[in-house]
């Protein structure tokens, strides 16, 4: 169909149409509105964000409750004895109340947007490239897709487990803590929630197909992370789930362990944390010229702005599955919203930042910059400095002395390439290293900065000093 006949079908024409109002979509809307008033944002479901509603914030609230319980239970070695009584209903009541507090602020911001710029409904891009939503056909010069992602549930599991199955979208709605819980998936979501529920007195078993946790690719850090986390959490790694079912009033998971022996878990409920998937294929993005790979990820993606090739189409946030992290979605939203404007400088185009990911278990897991695998694939001449937190001063004082930090540095430039860690205060160590990578600081410049004593961050200095000592030595494969 010709463009003119497509135009004649449209009930509305705009400069920019944004589909999805999560973190990425909201930031894109705010940026694009700075220079264009001819804009519309379309959203199905809640107008808050995944982070505030079912992600970062409620999970951190549950983690906070678990930390309080854990430190109270573990206080006896410090000479502090206490009787612990965990009120599951109060735990979940606080999680939900503060979750609603955070989402209300997001909702208030959205409520301030002009009503004629917002459409509630499910969007679909038809074969003419028009956006169908409710009874409208919208033609847009630029389309920004920010439809996020939804939890992945293996085929048949919902039918077999029914109300005994939870995802990260539903687990925070429970009224009370279960007695026992199987968590399937040892990524960030699975690991954080498994440890939190375990600390709150739930009998938790964490099952994962791979023999690794927290998205770690450095084998030494992964080995240490498993050692640290398994001391108080039942881990079943390297397993294969063969079936799930209900038996009387229990959920069942049949699986083969690492040796191939058949095993069965039985308990109250199953939390599936096997990742999230985008819904680009159902949206009809191919009608805008967007090609998807076998994993439904968009091809020819600009990882800074989300633009697809030279098309006036942007796929941002979790929808593009590049790095499904909130700060990445936020930056991509700003950049996409800026890119559709004539004056991108005034609209604040965000530069790309080094990769940074944090898992808020205890000890925390973090990766920053390039992975060891990436560095080796590029054949970069590098050295590795590390510190074991088992004997690090402040960590031992605090009773959190388990972990390993590995810093990767370039021999040619003396600059940090990346790092991987399972460590107390890993969130702060990772941020320092991310700032160093962003500003291209050398190892010497980092070591010239003060490291106060006694702090856990002194462990970073130990690793950096080891890097510096190795700089003049022949490279040894690690």
Task: Summarize the structure in short.
The protein has 478 residues and is α/β, with parallel strands linked by helices. It has helices spanning 3-9, 23-32, 50-54, 56-73, 88-111, 157-161, 188-199, 219-230, 280-283, 326-339, 372-377, 393-398, 426-438, 443-448, 458-470; strands spanning 12-19, 39-43, 118-120, 124-125, 131-133, 136-145, 150-151, 165-166, 180-184, 203-208, 234-237, 240-247, 250-256, 262-267, 269-272, 276-277, 313-315, 356-359, 364-369, 382-388, 404-410, 416-423.
Textual characterization of the structure:
The structure is a single chain. The chain has 478 residues and is α/β, with parallel strands linked by helices. The protein has 15 helices and 22 strands. It has helices at residues 3-9, 23-32, 50-54, 56-73, 88-111, 157-161, 188-199, 219-230, 280-283, 326-339, 372-377, 393-398, 426-438, 443-448, 458-470; strands at 12-19, 39-43, 118-120, 124-125, 131-133, 136-145, 150-151, 165-166, 180-184, 203-208, 234-237, 240-247, 250-256, 262-267, 269-272, 276-277, 313-315, 356-359, 364-369, 382-388, 404-410, 416-423. Strands 1, 2, 3, 4, 5, 6 and 17 form a seven-stranded mixed β-sheet that branches. A five-stranded parallel β-sheet has the order 8-15-9-10-11. A hairpin with a 2-residue loop joins strand 5 and strand 6. The protein is globular, with a radius of gyration of 24 Å. It starts with a helix and ends in an 8-residue tail after the last helix. The model has no long low-confidence stretch (mean pLDDT 93).
